[in-house]
Write a structure and sequence with these properties.
With 209 residues, the chain is α/β, with parallel strands linked by helices. The chain contains four helices and 14 strands. The chain has a single domain, classed as 4-Layer Sandwich (Purple Acid Phosphatase, chain A, domain 2), CATH 3.60.21.10.
Length: 209
């Protein structure tokens, strides 16, 4: 945080803990607040976030799970959980569950006809992107990829696949997978508003020294 002193918002794409408690979640979120500013933190839970952690996020106004939050930089929408695989982590969801949650919030934004950018935050990455590659194979969500192509949000922030950090312009959407924060990875998004009200967005991967 001290390296990027002008940070106003922090978006967390899940797995705040590794099967942890609400106390563990509080420690992680408090660590993100180190520095002279107190950025607004918004998060979706990941597949390794327990019921207790998910409740903590809701109770503290951090969760954007199937919610839309309007910020000066854009409409931030979220859907959490990992794509169902072996069923051994606390928050796994089927393709249709992911679709239902993401479609709900993306339709909310579309109905407002807002001129602000749409920023989608999910734990699971869209299938076929540079954000979902594991050992050379795409492992993301087909349904989220379909929604990305339908709604064309300006930014899609995701996580889950540790091996695939990226800032990648794919069709009309800037996809960002920062990689695991526990390893010092994060990404910075810069929003610039033009005199005509247009918004330009740039992203870059960063790493804590």
């Amino acid at each position: 945080m001290t390296k990027n002193k002008g940070v106003e918002y922090i978006l967390v794409a899940g797995d705040i803990t590794n099967f942890g408690s609400e106390l563990d979640a509080a420690k992680v979120l408090d660590a993100l607040q180190i520095g002279p500013t107190r950025p607004v933190i918004l998060a979706v839970p990941g597949n390794c976030d327990t019921v207790a952690v998910r409740k903590y996020l809701v109770d503290n106004g951090v969760s954007i799970e199937q919610r839309v939050v309007v910020l000066p930089i854009g409409n931030v929408a979220g859907v959490g959980g990992g794509l169902k695989r072996a069923g051994i982590t606390p928050y796994e969801r089927t393709e249709m569950e992911l679709r239902s949650g993401a479609e709900h919030v993306l339709k909310q934004v579309a109905h407002t006809r807002s001129k602000l950018p749409t920023i989608m935050v999910s734990h699971t990455p869209p299938y076929g992107s540079n954000a979902d590659l594991r050992h050379g194979q795409h492992v993301g969500s087909y349904e989220l990829a379909g929604l990305m192509n339908t709604f064309c949000p300006q930014v899609w922030v995701c996580g889950h696949i540790h091996e695939s950090p990226c800032v990648s312009m794919e069709d009309e959407t800037l996809i960002v997978n920062p990689g695991p924060c526990a390893n010092g990875n994060y990404a910075v998004l810069t929003f610039r508003i033009g005199e005509d009200g247009s918004v330009s967005i740039r992203g870059k991967l960063e790493h804590l020294a």
